Each structure stands twice: as structure tokens, then as C-alpha cells.
Description:
- By secondary structure, this protein is α+β, with helices and mostly antiparallel strands.
- It has helices at 27-38, 49-67, and strands at 2-5, 12-15.
- The chain has one domain (2-67): Erythroid Transcription Factor GATA-1, Chain A (2-Layer Sandwich).
- A two-stranded antiparallel sheet has the order 1-2.
Amino acid sequence: MTKVNCPTCQKEIEYSKDNPYRPFCSKRCQLIDLGDWASESHKIEGKSAKEEMLSEELEQIIKDSLLK
Length: 68
């Protein structure tokens, strides 16, 4: 069986379909991680959806003005 460390507490656990909390060791660690994402302690770097949309709109405006 594959062994992994719980992302929250680093306890070594078996990565198994029998563990309903995988890759976490427990419901507690799973909820701590969820809370970190909800409070934005964890986040994925990059543009927000709003920034991406504005960037695409700006690119289109520039392309349209260059074609005129």
C-alpha cells in the first residue's frame, strides 16, 4: 500500500480507498485544510477570473483599434 504524509499534520498514513479522508489522516485535518482555503491562507497564484476577463476585453479592444 502507498504511504503518504497528511498535508495538514504530516502524519504518515496509507493512501487507500478505505480512508474516506484521503489524502488527510482524519476529518479534523480535512476541515483544517478546507478552512485554510476558505480564509485564503491557501491560494493558487494567477489572475483572478475578473482580471482575466478584463485582460481579454482589453486585448480585443486593442486588436479592434489596430484593424481600423
